[in-house]
Amino acid sequence: MSWSAQKGRVVFVILLFGVQVVQGMETIDWGGTYAQTTICGLTGTTVEFQCSFWYPQTIDGQNTNVVKRFWFTKGSSYNTEDLSLDPEYSGRLHFDCQGDLCRLSIRELRESDAAVYKFRFVTNHGREGSYSVMPGVNLTVNDLRVQVRNYRQKTLRCVTKCHLGSSPSYNWYENGEEIQNENSQDYTPAHNSKHSYSCAVRDQHLLSPPACVVEKCNKVVYDNRNICALKGSSVDITCTYSHPYAIRTKFWFRADPSYMRINPSPPRNLQLDDRDRVEYPRESYRRSTLRIKNVMESDSAEYRFKFTTYDFEWRSSLPGTSLTVAAVQVQVMDVEVEDSYVSAQLSCHMSCSPTAPLSFCWMRNGRSAVDCSTAQMTKHHKIDLYPGDYVTCGVHGYPLTVSTPLYALKAPLIWPSDPEEILEGRPLTLTCRTDTQTSYGQHWYKKLKPSGHQAVGDGPELVFTSIRSSDSAEYFCTVGNELGNKTSQSVMIDVKYAPKSSFLGVSPSQDIQVGQSVSLTCSCDANPAASYTWYKDNQIVPQGAERNYRFISIQSKDAGSFYCKAHNKYGNVNSSQVFINVQYGPLHANVSAIPSSSISVGSSVSLTCSSDANPDASYIWYKDNEESPKFTGAVFNISDYRQHHGGEYRCEARNAFGSLNATLWLQVKASPLEAATIGCVTAALLLILLLVAVLMLRKKMASKHTTQCKAQPKATADSHRDHQEELVYSVVAFSKHAPTYSNVANAKRDQDDGVEYTAVGCSDSRVSRPKLQEEPDVSTLYSTVQKKRI
User: Which pTM was predicted?
Assistant: First the structure.
């Protein structure tokens, strides 16, 4: 027997009785070594074995691969039994291999675990390729106990047959309560008391059973430190106790920490809580039994015994008996996946190991797969399972121990909570459904483009408390167990939502010129896809519902502020406004003068040039055909206007996209003095011309008369009179006030010239004043003359 200060699992301690390294080899190329060949372990602790091994890398040109590793205690080197398949060790073994080093640990050590443990490995070379490392590790199991060294002085010693190492430290307990500041191996009580004493190796929490210093003392000793019971069976938990006086009360109670947290009140008699299943059978002297019928997994706990006398209450903090209720389950040892089925090597596993031998039953789809009545039926079974098949195991004679079914899974199905329309912001739940009644490991994945997937959750449901547009994707789930995994078909989650984040883009984005092709594109995030309405200067443009608005050849009239409205049945959103600025060269250039009529000398004049252009044009002024510009700017001012300023002026309007010219003719209006001078000079010139003409005419006429006289010497009187007739001109006289002729009417003023001219007429009173032309030619600016007979 052994005692522990903690229930269930205890920290392992490896106690070496001696260390000896032995290498067992059958050939020079095969072998292995153990870290220790002798180990002494205390009951209830954990021990560990280590073995490293080697083998030839190739045999007959074929590479060597290790296919199996295991530990054993029974059988010969060629006919061994894997220790992990022994029900005596069920739930207490841990096996781990890393490369060529393998470890085996055994927890909750029992006296029955004492044996020689050997390691064996098997390669791909068949029976000849197997090797057992000898001689193995010899494990002995011992208790920790209190020994009375001197009955007269009542000196106590904490002893064990296992070597505890150098200078171990100890704890001592009196009536189950720790004695402070005592850490040596020996302890002497202060007086000859009726108390019991226990010892423990410090930091290892392993206690010895209590011992009395005198013949009778107060103590409780539990028959079993741990008990493994099958679900549905009845279990007896027993103890022995002693006391020097008569007992007043005694009962059993649960002392596990979880139960005591729920029920912090003083210990309560279990029989009062559950009379149907808990009973105390008829007890013998100083021995008590707790019987729990039809045990369940919830009965797994630590149980303690309590008694009181007239002046004493045994309420020790020392551990009692830990009960573990075993529920069997199907454990997969090996599986081979075929196209339509799986072939599995199974084991009926238990969470603890009962002391009594058991027979196991196997069932497929609820029907017996083996003869369960056969005694000592093996706990291992090989079976082929098709999708939807399930297998269970149980202990013969214990119907409540049947395991939960292990299924060969089918592919699961996904069911959305809202199979119709999925709207953004609403909750959505996806359920991964299987056709089995038991739950397995379920995992959720989201497909990523172009390939791949992302894990997004675990469990039978994937919950979106408020689904977002970014959650739109294909989803699938997987279910898995020891027999493999199955994957569902993907389901598309298409989240609907109103347009958002509308954006208006322009191409080209800048320097738009007349005649270019310009595209406006409205973009937004919406599901279903949005329709569009276009606006220019806040007025709807009859463009239709397309997302593109295009100008094949944009014109200046197309400039303006544009935006678009994106809309679907869930809502709408407007884009920001974008101004389309159409650029072009100068158009419709004009020039003007102020004043606009004829301009007098000495006055001022402003010439203005304007045009339609984007960007605004710059202006350069030229005069006549001169190449050098006169002025740069839209307005050209001449402050002191002179005769030489008259002529043609040309304005050139120019920007980056072109240029355009416009002209203006300026005339000079003469002053009164200048006009009079010009008139006199003109009249004088006309008079001279007239006199020259008269002289030439007279000379011609005289020549003609002489010729006629010679031809006709006897002319008549009429002839003579006619001969005497000749043209004469009236005397020309100037008026007093203007350089005009007195017998000549005023000529009409020419609005386009700066000089006024007059028409000249004859001065003879007998000569009528003919009406002059409004704009006589210079060559005809003579007076109309009437001939006068002399």
Answer: 0.53
